[in-house]
């Protein structure tokens, strides 16, 4: 199993590290445009192999796509991150050009690859990859919902004063400060709806804290987060590589599902060796449906900027 990660910055390197530590891939190629940067990150990571007990070979290359040839999965993290006070949508001007060029170069060398898009604004970048390549829809996956759901579970566990392993929950919709749809109605602690333990006000607080999860970290760090994003990407990569048939909310091209067409937005999918093996349609109530419609409006407005 060969995996390429484009962008050896904070998220790309973290993602490569988690993939290696989980020890399911034979090779990870880390590619960056900055001379020597990916080579340095790869060497540093390889020097953790004996300490962390993995055999995955991590190779770094400067913009040489021939070294990515025949990758089973390619992850795109190249592009600029936001600074405090910015929205993800403001990154479109620079990141659209990068994502378009990078996806085309990847496909030239790995025509059968599955692409995972991470660069922001992620739903629009995923849509761009659909529009600018001829890859079938099941081979283009946007990562956002897996991260947002992890943050939702963190906030739920905090509110419940419970271990995170007791908590389950999912965030669908657009990966933006206003567009996320945390499904509080369906969240549980050991199969018991969380509304049994938390007031509506507390649940609303959890929902709002989840939606601004990325912005909160950006304010604290001065740039956007990387550990949880890297771990979330590695989870998707592992589900595909190991044919796990796991369910994650991912940005996926909808063709009628959730009453939407011609948009990439977060919805639950089953991930296995073929990429997106199924889009799961869950029954939403009227408020959740309205939330999804609003979320899609925001994503479409950003798509219109392409
Ligand atoms: N979808 C998500 O949930 C999620 C989570 C975190 C970050 N992100 C996004 O991921 C992107 C990367 O974030 P980061 O913190 O790793 O940024 P970073 O600046 O640390 O790393 C980005 C890397 O991309 C490289 N790069 C730029 N143009 C390139 C090109 N044409 N080819 C190859 N490499 C190129 C840069 O040299 C840099 O090393 C940002 O757009 C950020 O908003 C998305
Ligand atoms: O917040 C960001 O800009 C980065 C990423 O989308 C995140 O949610 O951490």
From TrEMBL:
UniProt xrefs under InterPro entries: L-lactate/malate_DH, Lactate/malate_DH_C, Lactate/malate_DH_N, Lactate_DH/Glyco_Ohase_4_C, Malate_DH_type3, NAD(P)-bd_dom_sf
Sequence positions that bind NAD(+): 7-12, 32, 95, 118-120
GO BP: any one term: lactate metabolic process
Stated family: Belongs to the LDH/MDH superfamily.
UniProt-annotated catalytic positions: 175
Organism: Aquaticitalea lipolytica
Family matches, as Gene3D superfamilies: Lactate dehydrogenase/glycoside hydrolase, family 4, C-terminal, NAD(P)-binding Rossmann-like Domain
Domain Lactate/malate dehydrogenase C-terminal positions: 147-298
Lactate/malate dehydrogenase N-terminal domain location: 1-142
GO molecular-function terms, A-Z: L-lactate dehydrogenase (NAD+) activity
Keywords attached to this entry: NAD, Oxidoreductase, Tricarboxylic acid cycle
Protein name (database record): Malate dehydrogenase
Pfam families recorded: Ldh_1_C (PF02866), Ldh_1_N (PF00056)
Residues annotated for substrate binding in this entry: 82, 88, 120, 151
């Amino acid at each position: 199993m060969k995996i390429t990660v484009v962008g050896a910055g904070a998220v790309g390197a973290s993602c490569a590290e988690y993939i290696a530590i989980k020890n399911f891939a034979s090779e990870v190629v880390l590619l960056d445009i900055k001379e020597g940067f990916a080579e340095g990150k790869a060497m540093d990571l390889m020097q953790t192999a004996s300490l962390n007990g993995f055999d995955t070979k991590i190779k770094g290359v400067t913009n040489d796509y021939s070294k990515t040839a025949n990758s089973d999965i390619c992850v795109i993290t190249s592009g600029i991150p936001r600074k405090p006070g910015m929205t993800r949508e403001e990154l479109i001007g620079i990141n659209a050009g990068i994502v378009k060029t990078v996806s085309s170069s990847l496909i030239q060398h790995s025509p059968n690859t599955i692409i995972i898009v991470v660069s922001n604004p992620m739903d629009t970048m995923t849509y761009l990859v659909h529009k600018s390549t001829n890859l079938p829809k099941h081979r283009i996956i946007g990562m956002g919902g897996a991260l947002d759901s992890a943050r939702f579970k963190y906030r739920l566990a905090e509110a419940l004063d419970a271990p995170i392993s007791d908590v389950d929950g999912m965030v669908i919709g657009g990966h933006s400060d206003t567009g996320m749809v945390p499904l509080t109605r369906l969240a549980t602690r050991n199969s018991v709806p969380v509304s049994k333990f938390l007031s509506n006000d507390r649940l609303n607080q959890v929902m709002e804290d989840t939606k601004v999860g990325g912005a909160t970290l950006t304010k604290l760090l001065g740039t956007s987060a990387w550990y949880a994003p890297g771990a979330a990407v590695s989870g998707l990569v592992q589900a595909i590589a190991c044919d796990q048939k796991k369910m994650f909310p991912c940005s996926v091209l909808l063709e009628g599902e959730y009453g939407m067409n011609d948009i990439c937005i977060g919805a639950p999918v089953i991930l296995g060796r073929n990429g997106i093996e199924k889009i799961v349609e869950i029954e939403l109530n009227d408020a959740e449906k309205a939330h999804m419609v609003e979320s899609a409006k925001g994503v479409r407005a950003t798509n219109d900027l392409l």
